[in-house]
Amino acid sequence: MRPCTSRVIRAEALLKLLDELLPAAVRPDPHQRLRMAYARKAGETDLEVLYYLSLGKGRPDLLLRVAPEQNALPSVANRFPALSWYEREMHDLFGIEFTGHPELHPLILHEGVTTSRPPLLGQAGAPIHYRTSPPTVPTMHATEIQRLPFGPVRADVVESAQFLFYYIGEGILHFHQRLFYKHRGMEQRFEGVSPMAGVILAERVSGTDSVGHALAFCQACELALGLLPPPRALGFRIILAELERLTNHLHYFSELARMTTLRVAAAQGAWLEEQVRQINGALTGSRFLRGILSVGGLRRDLEPSGLAGRLTDLETGISDFLDKLADTRSYLDRLIGTGRLSTDVAMDQGATGPVERASGLDRDLRRDRPYGSYGMLEFKVPRESEGDALARAQIRRAEVTESLALVRESLAHLESGPVITDQPEEGPDPGGEGLGAVEGSRGGLYYAVHFDPDRQCLLRVKIKEPSFSNWRVFPFTVKDTNLMDYAINEASFGLSIAGADR
Amino acid sequence: MTNWAWFGLSQGRLTTGWPEETVGHGQEGVLGMPRLHPERCAPTCRDCISACPSGAITGGLGESVTLDYGRCVVCQRCTEVCPTGAIEKTTDWAFGVRTREALLAGGGGMGSGNAESPPSTHVPRGFRRSLHIRHVDAGSCNGCESELEALLNPFYNLHRLGIFFTASPRSADLLLVTGPVTVAMKEPLLETYRAMPEPRFVMAMGTCATGGGIAGGGYSCHQGLEGILPVDLWLPGCPPNPAALMEALLVLLGRRPERGALPERAG
Description:
The structure holds 2 protein chains of 2 kinds.
Chain A: E1 5-9, H1 14-21, E2 32-41, E3 47-55, E4 62-66, E5 72-74, H2 84-94, E6 97-99, E7 113-114, E8 129-130, E9 146-150, E10 162-168, E11 171-178, H3 186-189, H4 195-202, H5 210-225, H6 231-259, H7 263-284, E12 293-294, E13 297-298, H8 307-326, H9 329-335, H10 343-349, H11 354-358, H12 365-368, H13 389-412, E14 433-440, E15 443-451, E16 458-464, H14 466-473, H15 483-493, H16 497-501
Parallel strand pairs in A: 1-4, 5-6
Antiparallel strand pairs in A: 2-3, 3-4, 7-8, 9-10, 10-11, 12-13, 14-15, 15-16
Chain B: H1 4-10, E1 35-36, H2 47-51, E2 57-60, E3 63-68, H3 77-81, E4 87-88, E5 104-105, E6 131-137, H4 143-150, E7 163-165, E8 174-178, H5 183-194, E9 201-205, H6 207-211, E10 233-235, H7 242-252
Parallel strand pairs in B: 6-7, 6-8, 8-9, 9-10
Antiparallel strand pairs in B: 1-4, 2-3, 3-5
């Protein structure tokens, strides 16, 4: 699978090989990690599980391909906790057993779900049966402990999920999140569709990350098919991706202000976000920047002449707003020390994006695995070490500045010429496979695609979503904190539920 | 130390005068629903039907082509592949309509005309000036939530129209549903509806809720609200923009006329 090297190994060799390739170190290298694992059907009855590894800076990524034996594999979750959810997902959707897994209870399909066959093995479209049942949580006995179930329908206009708090007074003893109420089975939706229809699906996996998803999907298909988009398309792709980051980060600051009860600041943030949405709409015809990306480039050329001016007008307002927030004591008081995530936990549990950079991990796919024309652009990757809500805000603040500069820079160097190609630069990937990696506004976003032998339609698409990674990490920052800080902490993570649930 | 109160006052009024005024809805350049002219179709052409990722277009090969706005995800693919201009890009957004059938366009379906029906008396008079909404996300991509949240920003400032979001279904008049309705969200959705006092209204917002969209079906999703809840107002769009949402809410309240799925917008 491009751009990785592949190795087929036997199930019993898996743990030992992973230990050799990714030795446990005193100071972990953020570029050496097991990133994700997923399963796919390989033939009529066989399954294949793919483990995607980064071996360090300057070394190509590696894909380990393993066939489960008697539908079981040794679990790697004890050694790599970040992989726990991936194994549980494969358990739910493919029915694979992971021996030695510390918590192999339902994740994607809740307790109470019954299926005739695991959904991604069965006939596409056969519905599952859902019976409301309580989640698997530890039992706690003490009259002082209060239990607060919150959701899945929560206050405000928010996404659906359930949160369970066990608390004494203000202190949270245990926190259990039940996501995946919104699981739509999006990965199965890609089966059998054309690359173009795939882009339209990818844009709708996580609506506020439409560009990130579509871009990762397009890059994966382009690697599989041997396509290289023309320079003008690559320039526009950076503009679109950075506009999306800008929109989402402004939304994030508005939310942080709202959670710290700064009504005027929240309104100002929302007003700035609205202005970028309107700029997005005028540029592409979509406030979510949809309908432009295509495998091989862009669906149509864009007219960017008004963009630079409108962004310049906005820039002063944005930096003034962020300065004012940083000069508000009641806001800083609520952020400092809230939801602290240590470097070790961030690394072990697989934090990504601004969340990991705020906890001291220096990683950004735009710089480390440059795609499109990011390799030709100068930009800073901010890093903080405190790991609290303020550090996460500071990372995003720095990224707002960088995004604006990247848009300006890309606009200035836009080349003329076509925006799409269907002529392969090189032969297609022998297996018809590709892996697209994008640093979305919420973190590392991967699409792995497997084409049919004729390279016409997709057989399997795996989405590694940054919010899936960061939701896994989030509870570690909730335990032993207090209820009053919870909403601020959640806002400081900047999570999407649609993306995580897919 | 920032004085936010002073800052807020110094910003002046940011809110648009729309919809009372005819300009300033903020959606300049935003592409809307495609418009179908079935009389221009080439007889053997099925290009738009095979390009549509959500099965919104049916017919062809002799039969007249029908476009179901309730299933249209506004991806614009049909307008790109159509060889005869029978289906064209527009900047017109869909309006809220009262019946699912009114979302069908072309091929003799309803809703293709722009005839205005008189303002509805569906919502009792006492509710028209004030409406409280309970929103339930039944599996959306978060695009619809993003646009709903935008209604509260200073530009749209939904509150000036007397329309509010409420946390408790007990104090809600309208259940506003987004998403195709996942199997896991069906029961919480119905429970929310049951907790609402009568008279209560239901609005399906976004193409997932009106017809399943690209996510509907499969092992984990229903096809939107049809057959799950009695819907009073259908508003397709992927997602519907905030101005379209405001317009639809006013249609529900009988403060704007119902005009069919895709009227030409004035101004």
